[in-house]
Amino acid sequence: MSAKDTRYTEAIGRRKTATARVRITESKSASMTVNGKSADDYFPLEVMVKTAFAPLQVLGANYAVSAKVHGGGLKAQAEAVRHGLSRAISEVVPEQRKDLKVRGFLKRDPRAKERKKFGLKAARRAPQWSKR
User: pTM of the full predicted structure?
Assistant: First the structure.
């Protein structure tokens, strides 16, 4: 079987403006590549790597994970990978969906930066007021 023949499951994860397209394939050991680099090389902090690997750690599953990420910052990208990975795993093994859902891995975090309004200095910050 060549590399083109391998079966994979794909899912999309999002956080703020970051979008991750995650593909998982069956594997003997858990591994992750993000934008062509290993997760350890791509994410500068160990906490971000743990965030991205969280669904695999929780379930004790072994998948080879390949993710293409764009937009947002590195923390948002790590959480987008986690979201996409959780979606892909729940597609492959529907019994594990509940466990992922309880931990909040399947919820798309809707928080994003509020837009700036006209007449204000920021989203809600008004110009400084002077009595005299």
Answer: 0.87
Burial class (CB in 10 A: 0-12, 13-18, 19+), 51: middle
Band (pLDDT 50/70/90 cuts) for residue 28 is confident
Q: What are 45-91's pLDDT values in tens digits?
A: 999 999 999 999 998 888 999 999 999 999 999 999 999 999 999 99
> Taking the CB of residue 68, how many other CB atoms lie within 10 A of it?
15
Evaluate the CA torsion angle 44, 47, 48, 53 in order and state its sign.
Answer: positive
Parallel, antiparallel, or unpaired for β 37-38 and 31-34?
Answer: antiparallel
Q: Is 75 helix (H, G, I), strand (E, B) or coil?
A: helix
Contact 22, 82 (CB under 8 A): no
Give bridge partners of residue 38 from the DSSP assignment.
33
